[in-house]
Amino acid sequence: MFKPDKMNYELLGNGCSHLHWHLYPRRKGDTPIKSSVYQLSNAELFDESTRPDEEQRKELIDLIKNEIIRLHTK
User: Fold this and answer.
1) Among 23, 40, 60, 66, who pairs with 45 as Cys (CB 3.0-4.6 Å)?
2) Where are the alpha helices (DSSP H) in the chain?
3) Domain spans of the chain?
């Protein structure tokens, strides 16, 4: 749905009592360094100016839901 250049992912479970995935659709040049997002400073990683506003979040949620439905009905 995001049409990334690549996808970073990790499966975690050591901090919680369940397994969960982190999925990071990545685009060339999306960060100032070519590395894991965890190599960014907290100021860069949690910069509020890069977060979608409430309307954008709702649009993204709808797009993701529609893509899941599309993939599920194939």
Assistant:
1) 40
2) 42-45, 54-72
3) 6-72
